[in-house]
Amino acid sequence: MVRDLRLIGRALxxxxxxxxxLSACSLRGAxxxxxxxxxxxxxxxxxxxxxxxxxxxxxxTGPSTFWNSATVYFLLTDxxxxxxxxxxxxxxxxxDGAVLRNFEGGDLAGVLRKIEExxxxxxxxxxxxxxxxxxxxxxxxxxxxxxxxxxxxxxxRDWTAVDPALGTTDDLRAxxxxxxxxxxxxxxxxxxxxTGPVTPQDPAWPDDWVxxxxxxxxxxxTTTVDCTLVxxxxxxxxxxxxxxxxxxxxxxKWGHEGRRDQEVAELDAFFQRTGYPRAPRYYVIKWLTxxxxxxxxxxxxxxxxxxxxxxxxxxLKREAEVALTDWRxxxxxxxxxTLPFYMVGEVYGWxxxxxxxxxxxxxxxxxxxxxxxxxxxxxxxxxTGSLDGLFTRxxxxxxxxxxxxxxxxxYLSSHDDGSPYDVDRKDPIGAGIRLLLAxxxxxxxxxDELARPLKVQGAExxxxxxxxMNWGDLDRQAEVLxxxxxxxxxxxxxxxxGAGVHRTLQAKPFIFSRSLETGSRVDRVxxxxxxxxxxxxxxxxxxxxxxxxxxxxxxxxxxxVRKGSVSLTTGSGLVLLAEQR
Length: 581
Hints:
This protein is α/β, with parallel strands linked by helices. It has helices at about 1-15, 25-40, 65-70, 110-115, 120, 170-180, 220-225, 250-255, 260-275, 280-295, 310-330, 385-400, 430-435, 480-495, 495-500, and strands at about 70-75, 125-130, 135, 140, 145-150, 155-160, 185-190, 210, 235, 300, 340-345, 355-360, 365, 375, 405-410, 440-445, 500-505, 510-520, 520-530, 535-540, 550, 560, 565-570, 575-580. The strands form seven sheets. The protein has an eight-stranded parallel barrel with strand order 1-2-7-10-11-14-15-16. Strands 17-18-19-24-21-22 form a six-stranded antiparallel beta sheet. Helix 4 (about 110-115) runs parallel beside helix 6 and helix 10 packs parallel to helix 11 (about 310-330). The two termini are about 25 Å apart.
């Protein structure tokens, strides 16, 4: 037994602390790796998991390679973790909304707590996408599914302030800084298409800023872009170039908060520097990019990207790149690498089979040529065929044809997709394999790793998808969480998993490889499925030569290639092999 523990410990230390990353490792870290492995072997999974932080970006890794190998954790801040109960009733919002349509207490302090505890590290997460944190409308609105408050973050009242229910600017800064210390990027959810609804407590924006009709009918480009998403959401006139004055209500608000002169002076400087007209979209672009310049956000997830003109996203990206450069210049000690600002778009309905162009019916738009490095893949969750076919298609997608050199972001469930993969959470083990071993970027929706229910009694519509994080299920779902952690850390340690070239080596039982060459670095992995528990002999084909020491990231067990195969004894039929470093 002692000898086995020593072998496991040595394998874990060599695997997670290869020579190229010795500076990021420590004896304490190695001991924690061993402890985590033993805890898992005994059936106990700690709440956070003391596990290695996400791998530092290799200098040879380009943007598309990084983001196709990324694991992005998407969370609704209000529904993730309540770190500071004192802000639960901020702005006097009542708790009289429909089921799961109130603010429920999650906040930035809660996100910070989980970052510092290592929860995201334990999943191999390389980026966190939080729902919008800017100040939301104060009252509730019924859009047909019951009274709803703006807990989700998509009903903006003031782009320049953090919503008090989520915390403060200092709280937000602490989240970004902590994530960066853990090797995790932070994506800001950028809303430029619309404001929040008008209520007795939330004044209307001027007519030269927004349109209030007609509602979008989605029959053409114009009826998708120059229209309102729903009747309650005023549409920002992003198509206009004529100068407009600041809304009186916003100026009054800033005055009460003692920052009117500062905000106006900053706007004057922005328009003088850029030469942009004082049109609505440029105000919003200034406000969105201020967060990047001040706090160092690494990218945007752009909301409702197909509902405003592509030139707007190109301008937003250009200003965000300037802002990130400014932040890096003033915070040199916090700069990890030179990976450029990232922008992923929510072009609802887009999937890779459509190529670079999205067809509006009478016009097609190439979003990748207008600021976007990636688009969210709305087709992945419906692609329920064999893993072999799925992996083969997606490898071809990112390495061949029109999408070569850009990135896609796959997901199984999300905050507004009423038809998620495995809505009843019948197979969270298989779901983890499908998402985290697929070519392309992977978006974990909060709770995927704990089989958080996607149906809630009494909830209507998208509220079903937005229950509070089920931290109470940590013990009950320990096996599921352990499985997602192992897959996520394997993916994080090996960019070949998401960005490498897929090759099917054997159909039954399924064995495949992924290979990635980036400059001087070669990364190869072999995944064998349905191998059965106990002793097994796995052919490695021509991927690894005889004499190569391999380690199974799923079990921590290592073995040497002999006569084209590796012999292992593990407790799982899933084997994740890579060269021991």
